[in-house]
Amino acid sequence: xxxxxxxxxxxxxxxxxxxxxxxxxxxxxxxxxxxxxxxxxxxxxxxxxxxxxxxxxxxxxxxxxxxxxxxxxxxxxxxxxxxxxxxxxxxxxxxxxxxxxxxxxxxxxxxxxxxxxxxxxxxxxxxxxxxxxxxxxxxxxxxxxxxxxxxxxxxxxxxxxxxxxxxxxxxxxxxxxxxxxxxxxxxxxxxxxxxxxxxxxxxxxxxxxxxxxxxxxxxxxxxxxxxxxxxxxxxxxxxxxxxxxxxxxxxxxxxxxxxxxxxxxxxxxxxxxxxxxxxxxxxxxxxxxxxxxxxxxxxxxxxxxxxxxxxxxxxxxxxxxxxxxxxxxxxxxxxxxxxxxxxxxxxxxxxxxxxxxxxxxxxxxxxxxxxxxxxxxxxxxxxxxxxxxxxxx
Length: 393
Prior knowledge:
The chain is an alpha/beta fold. The chain has a single domain, classed as Alpha-Beta Barrel (TIM Barrel). It has helices at 70-88, 110-119, 138-151, 166-170, 179-193, 232-241, 253-269, 288-294, 296-308, 316-322, 342-356, 371-388, and strands spanning 50-54, 92-95, 125-128, 131-132, 156-161, 199-202, 207-211, 225-228, 244-246, 275-284, 337-340, 360-364.
């Protein structure tokens, strides 16, 4: 796993080499310039932390609003973001998954996106965050993951969950209410398909009579399966069936802490690894005003969408959001929706790790492959990589 800078490459635009990417380097105001030794002199290492980066693959806008150059430009940008993640030392990149949802930035076929990213990276691990497993034939998923594992030389992580948007199931004739049992069967079929034995399975949703999936994954005994979960029953299911838990980004780190402790205890009792990856929305800028004006509005739109879909919340800011109140960073839980200067982000991330003892934090900066949103995303990755990540190495 990549844990530091590639040889001879220190990302930055002053007193050192710029990122080895086609696009121009991003330079920051002088107060954020680095020293000749590659680190801010006053900065001290706090705790060793591993980070993942959410990488958008779609614009989240109608096709008429595609960037100049259309889909080709959009994918070039996606590849560049993955390259930035690798250069800065993120441990893995993630791709989301939603179908029939053009307003989102997630891929309708995430394994295709991961295969493309695998061919353009060398050390960055790649994870679906998440694959809505009940929407698919599990043998198809087993084959696709194995293929990407070969292309990437053993760098894929299968992140999977049951889904929460009924129309995604309705459009392909599946019963949304049966997604839990369909998910559990699918996990079992996928694991059997990666073994050396032909698959024999008889379930309510899937029947397999001696299928021998090829190729087999590079990782042995198999690629990790991390399961997305929010409510207690789903968390227990993740501990029973998965190698890790992808937490939601709608609950504070403080409230997740006890749940993570229970998850790990149950996972270890089941002989599972109990890995925890904490999803967090993060906005970073040279000052808080910049973050509130440029980053916060689309992030709040995401939470409005969650409310519209009935995602359960128990936080005061959601009531204010639903009533149409204007919200600033001070109104939000600082260990859930992290926004501000690099110093603000370092402090909030330190609190997150102290509250959860998670293995990873997945950084989600929001929209990305469209116009000004892309430039802001690229600038945020650059600032986070140069000013925040070194504090945790």
